[in-house]
Structures are given as structure tokens and as C-alpha cells.
Amino acid sequence: MSKIELQGVEKSYGSHEVLKGFDLSVKEGEIFGLLGPNGVGKTTLFQTVIGLLREDDGTVKIEGEEHTGGKEVRSKIGYLPSDISFYGGMSARENLEYFAQLAGTEPDFDELLELVGLEEDADRNPKDFSTGMKKRLGIAQSLIKDPEIIIYDEPTTGLDPEGKRRFRQHAEKINKEKDKTIIISSHITTEISPLCDRFGIMKDGEIVACGTKAELSKETDNDLGILIEAEDTDKLVQVVEDSSLDVEVLVDDTEVEVVTEDDIRSELFRILLENDVDVKTFEIEEETLENAYMKLTGEA
């Protein structure tokens, strides 16, 4: 089921076209990554979806219902903008209480603060928070209405590596434990690649490709790299090389990369299990998505 569906959405500022017949479908329960260079219209798209802007043409549907800016539909969406701010005269908890009052809701503030790891900082002033802590408070704020859909606009900008890791950790927790559909935008593939189920590649106000890492790799004629670690690296290599799969095997210490033109993950994993290979990790190489993104956006 599509949680969000956009069909032919257009939006212009004067003579400048920002969204050009934009089509997109986001599935219920997935974490969807929207990738595109800065200035291609990601923020305008999000503001159109949440009702801050009205499309010039096309339709935006939330759970099959056309979005006309009504309060009922807006209550289903939480939004964390790229630039967030809080009231400096209030504590973190008081900020959440204030936003909840505006939204007409009464969430469990202790639960929200604990969910984002700020329970010990509830009485501190957000102006004294690090960028990462402000982002986490913003995540809590986006959950105040208990929305079914959460949109994060460039959420890892300005975060250090630990802050990025913690953001991905919290987003995944919200997706799994709270059963939320999440859309995250970025212009850097590695920022959101480990987190997302599918990706949309955006260029010049349009979606130019959409799919999983493997699907995008195939669409752009890139080889697919599968990274595997096992308890016994030698046995892993031997099993793969003895199989009938048309692959190249590269070994780097304890990590093995299987390079293939096709998505053979299911067959490869079955072969490893049948041969009692104790697999520790099995994932697509990050460069697979990066290469597809560079080709599709013309940045290669």
C-alpha cells in the first residue's frame, strides 16, 4: 500500500520551475531515501507534501486520500526541517510541551525524551545543546502528534560522525518500534544509505530513478558489490569460487567482496547456507549506490 503518492506534481516560483511533473510512491512502513544535489527541489517537495505549499498542478495523496491541506491529513505527518530552532527561554521539555499545546495533543513527554536519548537533559535549555542534541530534540518534536509519516529534510547536515550514527539509530528505532513510515533526504549517499529500504534519485525537479540499491545498480549498468564476512574466510571464498555463479571474488583480510552484474543475493545466500558457511555480515557495498547516484545526476 502506498502511504504517500504524488502524481504529476508541479510547482514554480514565478518563471522558475522547481517541481516538473513529479511522480513518487512511498510504501507503508518503509524508510525511503530521497537523494539529489542541493537546489533540485527536495525541500519544496517536502513543504508541498506537508501542506505548507500548494502544488500548481498534479495531486498529492496520503493513504489514498487527496491532500488539500486539511488538519486531519496534516496530523498524519511529522516534519523535521533542515534548519531547526527552539525557544531559548524554555527547557527542552517546555519546548515540547509548548509545541504539543499548539498541536492540541498530550503525548508522553518522558517517553519522547527517552526515545531520543535526552531524558537526562529535559530541563536544560536547548540553546546550550550541541547540533546533534538539537536534531534529536527535533526528532522528538516531529513525533508530538504521533504521526504515521515522518519527513526528515537533510537531517545529518552539521553532525559529526557520532551524531550521524546516533541519528540513524534513532530513526531506525522509530521505524521499527513505532511502525512509522519515514522519508529522509540528503545530497550525500553515505549519510542515509545504511538506513533506507529504497531510494529516489532527484534531478532538476524530477525523479529520474527509484528502487533498491540493487535495482538502481542494474538500471545504471553498474556492477553489484556484495560484502560478506564469515567465521571462516577461506571456506567462504572456496564455496563461492566452486559455485556456478558468474562472479569475481575479491578478498581483503577478513572481508570478501563478490562482484556481479546481476542481483544474485538470494541464490548466493542459499549456497552459503547449504554449505554451512557461518555468515556474520552480508550487505551491498556502499559504492554501489554512490556510483548509480553519480551517473543518474550527471555528477560522475
What is the topology?
Blueprint: E1 2-13, E2 16-27, E3 31-35, H1 42-49, E4 57-62, E5 65-66, H2 71-74, E6 77-80, H3 92-103, H4 109-115, H5 131-142, E7 149-152, H6 161-177, E8 181-186, H7 189-192, E9 198-203, E10 206-211, H8 213-219, E11 224-230, H9 233-242, E12 248-252, E13 255-260, H10 265-274, E14 279-284, H11 286-297
Parallel strand pairs: 3-8, 3-9, 6-7, 7-8
Antiparallel strand pairs: 1-2, 1-4, 4-5, 9-10, 11-13, 11-14, 12-13
Characterization of this structure:
With 300 residues, the chain is an alpha/beta fold. 34% of the residues lie in helices and 29% in strands. The strands form 3 sheets. The protein has a 6-stranded mixed β-sheet with strand order 6-7-8-3-9-10. The chain has a 4-stranded antiparallel β-sheet with strand order 2-1-4-5, covered by helices on one side. The mean pLDDT is 89. One of its GO terms (molecular function) is ATP hydrolysis activity.
Short description:
Keywords: ATP-binding, Nucleotide-binding, Transport. Helix content is 34%, strand content 29%.
Summarize the main sheet: 6 strands, mixed
Q: What's the total number of strands? A: 14
Report the sheet-strand fraction: 25-35%
Number of domains: 2
CATH-level-2 architecture of the largest domain: 3-Layer(aba) Sandwich
Q: If helices are DSSP runs of H or I spanning 4 or more residues, what is the number of helices? A: 11
Which homologous superfamily in CATH is the superfamily of the largest domain?
P-loop containing nucleotide triphosphate hydrolases
Compressed to H and E, one letter per element, the order equals: EEEHEEHEHHHEHEHEEHEHEEHEH
- What is the radius of gyration computed over CA atoms, rounded to a whole number of angstroms? 21 Å
CATH topology of the largest domain: Rossmann fold
Largest sheet, spatial ordering of strands: 6-7-8-3-9-10
